[in-house]
Design a protein that fits this description.
By secondary structure, the protein is an alpha+beta fold. The chain has one domain. The chain has seven helices and nine strands. Helix 2 packs parallel to helix 4 and helix 3 packs antiparallel against helix 4. The longest helix is centred in the first third of the chain and has 34 residues. It is elongated.
């Protein structure tokens, strides 16, 4: 809502001649002053808590409490946002809550480690929205150089386009993903927009995804020539792996199965898929839908 003082500078000086400014139905200076004082108190309290949170992140880093582990924990971040969404009330949109906390979480990542993101031109917006405006972003010409930068340790994560059913085989970067060394660990955006059913990008890292109560697992399959979508779905069902989506590139022998729940490389259910040469390539916490 526009500030009445900014909208009408005369409110800042009651001595001005405009008679409308003296009308109590137009403005109540004492109420406005009280509201501003409350805004200031809330801002100070928020700032105090943000400084306290940053100090705790810095303390964890200084004490080496995350030594040997990644500072980016996508499952933990998903749990934080789900908890906040569940308790959220009032007129502030959930999108604003997500954006605020993504910046706060990204700031913690930068405090705890030398964090940067490898991305492509088409995934820059998703990377910025998830990892914050101030996180260093290194743009690469395609998935192969982005994954090479990730493998070399130049960036802790790479943000690549989400696989799409019927995409050209040359665009299916997941076919050559060096799993289990590199794995998908998150999907972006975490809060889907109205009418958006699928994520637009996936995050790849050098560690496995964290488990949450609602996850999707990704399994790369090698299908025989002429094998149908229905046959692959039936094979997954028979193995006890509930298929949520099956992605078939336009040409090539591979398929990408998205199943309910994360799947480990040693999961005994994979044995039933042995003829399809299954390879687990990671997974992610299910994004949250935004009501229309």
């Amino acid at each position: 809502m526009p500030d009445p003082v900014l909208a009408n500078p005369g409110l800042a000086n009651p001595g001005l001649a405009d008679p409308a400014l003296a009308d109590p139905s137009v403005v109540q200076p004492s109420a406005l002053a009280a509201a501003r004082a409350e805004f200031d108190a809330i801002d100070d309290a928020l700032h105090d808590l943000l400084m306290r949170r940053a100090a705790l992140s810095a303390q964890l880093s200084a004490q080496g409490m995350k030594a040997g582990g990644a500072s980016f924990r996508p499952g933990r971040e998903a749990l934080i946002l789900r908890r906040l969404f569940a308790r959220h009330r009032g007129p502030m949109p959930r999108e604003t809550v997500a954006r605020l906390w993504r910046e706060v979480i990204a700031s913690s990542l930068r405090l705890q480690s030398d964090f940067s993101v490898a991305a492509l031109a088409e995934t820059q917006a998703a990377a910025r929205g998830h990892f914050g405006l101030d996180t260093p972003l290194r743009c690469h010409a395609g998935p192969a150089p982005a994954l090479a930068a990730l493998s070399a340790g130049e960036s802790p994560v790479a943000v690549l386009p989400a696989p799409v059913d019927g995409e050209p085989a040359k665009a299916a970067w997941w076919v050559g993903l060096d799993a289990p060394r590199l794995q998908v660990v998150a999907a972006l955006p975490f809060l889907l927009g109205p009418g958006q059913a699928l994520p637009g990008a996936l995050v790849v890292a050098r560690f496995a995804a964290d488990a949450t109560p609602r996850d999707r697992g990704l399994i790369r399959l090698e299908r025989a020539s002429g094998s149908s979508r229905d046959a692959l779905m039936a094979a997954l069902d028979a193995a006890g792996l509930t298929p949520r989506r099956l992605i078939l590139p336009a040409g090539g022998p591979h398929a990408l199965a998205e199943v309910e729940g994360l799947v480990g490389a040693e999961d005994p259910r994979l044995a039933a898929l042995a003829p399809l040469g299954p390879t687990v390539i990671g997974g992610y916490a299910e994004p949250e839908p935004e009501p229309a």
